[in-house]
Specification:
- The protein has 115 residues and is mainly alpha-helical.
- It folds into 2 domains: 41 residues; 64 residues.
- Helix content is 81%, strand content 0%.
- Helix 2 runs antiparallel to helix 3.
- The longest helix is centred in the N-terminal third of the chain and has 36 residues.
Length: 115
């Protein structure tokens, strides 16, 4: 019975990975075909230009949250892993909220310059 489990688990993992990749590719192709049928060009992408701000804030604040959680764990009864993960999500969310307000402010300034 143990030998069967050793064979079934890797096969299941490979089947799951194949299914996810297959669904991703077919959904992408369906989206492009729907765009062509609607008369749109599927090769044009809408770029916001703010992805660097969002990524920079995330890559800065999430590690800071982990660091702060690990530092504060000495003063609480929670373990390092729990508090680090908690603060990582907290600071990741704060980074996304801050990125939203920064992007909105930049878009408003850009709109005011065009007017």
């Amino acid at each position: 019975m143990e030998n069967a489990v050793e064979i079934i688990i890797p096969l299941g993992a490979f089947a799951m990975i194949f299914g996810i990749v297959y669904l991703a590719i077919t959904s992408h192709n369906r989206k492009e075909l729907a765009m062509i049928e609607a008369g749109m060009n599927p090769n044009t992408k809408k770029e916001s230009g703010h992805s660097k701000i969002r990524a920079g804030l995330l890559f800065t604040l999430v590690p800071f949250g982990i660091f702060l959680g690990n530092m504060l764990s000495t003063y609480t009864v929670m373990r390092d892993d729990e508090l680090g993960l908690l603060f990582a999500f907290l600071f990741g969310g704060l980074a996304l909220v801050a990125a939203y307000f920064i992007e909105r402010n930049l878009d408003q300034k850009k709109q005011n310059l065009l007017d």
